[in-house]
Amino acid sequence: MTGSEEYDVVIVGAGFSGLYAIHRIRQLGLSLRCFEAGDGVGGTWYWNRYPGARVDIESMQYSYSFDEGLQQDWKWPEYFSPQADLEAYANHVADRFGLREHIEFETRVNRLRFDEAENRWHIAAENGRTATAKYVVAACGSLDATNVPAFPGLDTFRGQWYHTSKWPKEGVPFEGKRVGIIGTGSTGIQAVPVIARTAEHLTVFQRTPAYSLPAYNRATDPEYEQAWKANYPDRRAAMFGNFAASYMENEQYRSVFDYTPEERLRILEEAWAARNGLLFMRTFSDIGTSLEANTIVAEFVRGKIRSIVKDPAVAEMLCPKTYPIGAKRICMDTGYFEAYNRDNVTLVDVRADPITEVTPTGLRTTAGEHELDIIVFATGFDAVTGSMTRMNVTGLDGRDLRDKWADGPTTYLGFLVAGFPNLFMIHGPGSPGVLAQMITAGEWQVDFVAGVIADMEAAGRQRIDTAPEWEQRWNLEVEQAAGQTLYNEADSWYVGANIPGKPRVFMIYIGGFDRYKQRCAEQVANGYEGFVFDAPIGASR
Ligand code: NA7
Predict the structure, then answer these.
(1) According to the model, what pLDDT value does residue 278 have?
(2) Mean pLDDT, the chain, whole residue set
(3) Which residue, of 149, 166, 222, 308, has the fewest CB within 10 Å?
(4) What is the mean pLDDT of the segment spanning 69-80?
(5) Residue 212, C-beta contacts closer than 8 angstroms, at least 6 positions apart
(6) 441 near 245, Cβ under 8 Å?
(7) Contact 323, 491 (CB under 8 A)
(8) For residue 380, which atom of ligand 1 is closest to its CA?
């Protein structure tokens, strides 16, 4: 293709938010193009094909709300869908709403340059594709940029190695193989029991043990499905007004200290036996805010780990003790701790016995070499900011986004970065991100951006920006919200602690999706306060 094609809007990413952005922006009558790095739609659920990959939010709610026909027609076979079902759903949506024709696949955007004379973004991709657009909607995912730790010698390894989020479509046979997996976050915990079933031997390299709770996944019960389908509009409305963009039934929600120790234990036992991980965390109201309350629940969970894992030394290694439960994303598993009772699974504590290098035949720790045929990196992501900074984004005066964010990301309301006009992020830093249910929160954010663009077009505006003082104010709100919780207490990817050298900043707005929506709406209603346009603008909403 020669020359750059001109669009009103370029959308980066055809994951769940990007797909909805195509649908929504098209309704504005604007020209658009979506560039997607993969050869299919689905984003997270396209890339993460590792064994055991499954969503940890119930599928009846982890799905689009924008079309009643879609939510009535679609059938989710399981409570918590496996990757393949989510990918099939994304494909169905792309076809049902005619979105595919707007997408160029295998087109990884690696350059975004704002031309301030033209007020247009110049977009370039690895495959040579170029385009320009008045607006860019970056729906490129907060868990997209892979983190492969820089162990010396990886290039000398004679076996195969994979990062879980770039898993080969054809799958990886483990039969007869000695497999090593590094990482025990949500991903590692899902993969371990599945790999253990077929591998000759599985060695799990654990740096920090995780709190994991039973997922209780099962086939979708027809009555449960019917209850959702008969009440979708009401339930979706409740989700849009909820702090986690989720539908919550039968909330118990009282302080741990409202109960006697015996009552607490009974409640926790009942919760353990029936409530999946995220629900379990809402058994009491103060698990996330009071260290004392948190310790009671954490100790209960450690007790469960000790009761499942037969070898007491291994059980102790698997017990998380260094951070409060819930301060990192709670994991949900199907037979994770039980996997350590198998003869073919070994646990290595790499905090006590660190990995020093990859050798041609395996992984070396200080204690010696572990011979391996396959290494699986379940080592997570350069989360929230990585997918943006890896795109080589330059704004006004040629400023590089990486320089702007050198001390941590700054945004206004999670959407805009001062000095990078007409660039809207979905699930960007300072938005509720993974602390809200991402499909619903993404729909809302896309609707918000579409509303802003509609207002700009109606007013004939060319440029929208924000100012550093408004970024500072918003960052302060983000920081204050996190400060009221125990989330800062863990070295999680929420604070960038998993990436060496990344500034420690709480990157997610934890004040609640409901509060976030309210704050965004207030600023717009207040004459677009904090937004900077090339000339004044009135809000239509
Ligand atoms: P996570 O949650 O970031 O987990 C990554 C795991 O990899 C975690 O156990 C890390 O230990 C471990 N890790 C990372 N770097 C290393 C090195 N250098 N050496 C040893 N171990 C390492 O990523 P996931 O993919 O599991 O989950 C991401 C999100 O997806 C999850 O939160 C859900 O929202 C869905 P650490 O804890 O940093 O010591």
Answers:
(1) 75
(2) 95
(3) 222
(4) 98
(5) 189, 277, 330, 331, 332, 333, 336, 337
(6) yes
(7) yes
(8) 23
Nearest CA to 365 among 377, 352, 374, 354? Answer: 354
Global ipTM: 0.99
Distance 335 CA to ligand 1 centre (A): 19
Contacts of 413 (CB under 8 A, 6+ apart): 430, 431, 474, 516, 519, 520, 523, 530
Contact call for residues 442 and 495 (beta carbons, < 8 A):
no
Is the CB of 149 within 6 Å of ligand 1? Answer: yes
Domains and CATH numbers, the chain: 4-145+382-533 (3.50.50.60), 154-231+246-377 (3.50.50.60)
Q: How many residues does the chain have?
A: 541
Per-position DSSP letters for 98-122, written without gaps between them: T-GGGEESS--EEEEEEETTTTEEE
**Ligand 1 midpoint to CA 368 (Å):** 23
What is this structure's pTM?
A: 0.95
Task: Name which of 251, 221, 284, 194 is nearest 58 in CA terms.
Answer: 221
Structure tokens given for 222: 């027809």
Q: What is the pLDDT at residue 2?
A: 43
Pairing of strands 531-533, 464-466: antiparallel
- Express each pLDDT in 103-146 by its tens digit: 999 999 999 999 999 999 999 999 999 999 999 999 999 999 99
Q: What is the mean pLDDT of residues 255-276?
A: 91
Question: Positive or negative, the Cα torsion across 243, 245, 246, 250?
Answer: positive
Residue 250's pLDDT band, with cuts at 50, 70 and 90, is low
- What average pLDDT does the segment 385-402 reach? 97
> Quick one: 478 exposed, middle or buried, by C-beta within 10 A (0-12, 13-18, 19+)?
buried
Is any atom of ligand 1 closer than 6 Å to the C-beta of 143? yes
pLDDT value of residue 182 = 98
Give residue 60 CA to ligand 1 midpoint distance, Å: 27
* Pair of tokens at residue 246: 């989720």
C-alpha span between 106 and 230 (Å, rounded)? 40
Q: Whose CA is nearest to atom 12 of ligand 1?
A: 183
Would you place residue 1 in the very low, low, confident or very high pLDDT band (cuts 50, 70, 90)? very low
